[in-house]
Amino acid sequence: MEGIADMGGTPGWGRVRPPRRDEPVFEEPWQGRAFALASLSGRIAFGGVNLDAFRHGLERLDRAAYLDDGYYGRWLNGAELMLTDSAVLAPGAIRARARNLRGEGVEEPPIPEPAVPDYAPSAEGSLRSVDHPPAFAVGERVRTKAMSVPGHTRLPGYARRHTGIVEVVQPAFVLPDTNAHFQGENPQYVYSVRFDSRELWGADAEPFAVTADLFENYLEATS
Fold it and tell me: What's this model's pTM, rounded to 2 decimal places?
């Protein structure tokens, strides 16, 4: 889907800041707790581990919730959205509880009837097996499709309708586009496709190569 998360290649964000070599996993203690809460919330909200559904939750945050609260603030906001989506929490429950912890004495919304999806992954992780050969080979020129996806996808907007070369054929993985919505795993081969920066962003772009890992469904032959 086209949202705040699909910002790759868009102007106005400045240069990318590489991480420090000594940068810790968590700069502050609350970030580690946020990570744990988000991981646990996903298991509760989905009935199992579904990283694609979690990513889709982050995509649906508004600009302030996605950017202004920082990386792990985004995870907390996503956790709240997941829990309210599955009716584990009522909308506004966290805000009301926070106000009561400050001594404000507000009424908290009643606990709803949970609506957790009937979800069970077929195996651990995302790696799967399929019974047919890959559609594309190393060295082959491929074009990304002009897809306008209303839900979750791992095909970034800047890479659509562009031509690149397959560098690596990877094993089959669960397709995020359907798995995020609990519509089946639909495993597909994944291809590491190399693009020229000027193919993606025009002749004025700095010359460099961009490699994207793309599902078979995102690609088509150039001839």
Answer: 0.88
